[in-house]
Here is the input.
Amino acid sequence: MDRERSQGKRLIEAMAKIKRVSSKHQFDDILPQREFYVMEIINSRMQCNNSDEQDQHAPLGIKVSELSEILHITMPSVSQMINGLEQKGYVKRVTTKNDRRVVYITLDVEGEAALKKAKKTFLSFTDEIVTRLGHEETEQLITLCNRLYEIIGDIKSRQS
Here is the structure.
């Protein structure tokens, strides 16, 4: 039991170290991690909507309510985040022609450029990790991370 507890403690410490060091990586200077994540969601939705032929009247983008659901945070928090991104010129609000009350969030040209630059820096970072770990250890890490995700999800669903 002590050995398992010790291993559990070491696992938490290792995950905390990774979180600490990765959250302070150089792409954070270009685009803070939270903004990167939100803008990547917006960008992904824009790409999906662009390839879909669903609603010709809906602009490319995502509603604040959808972002709130995806991020698991309140609509006021999402709105506050969007306000900050809008002030930086990264996103814009677009209304539909059919219903002016419906607002979509889309990336602006500045936002697309910042996201592209942050992605390039981040991919360079992860490419170096993969190179230094090697193919086999990278595959093991991916498998273990996916397994950890499943276990955590299972534990959380049982607690609910």
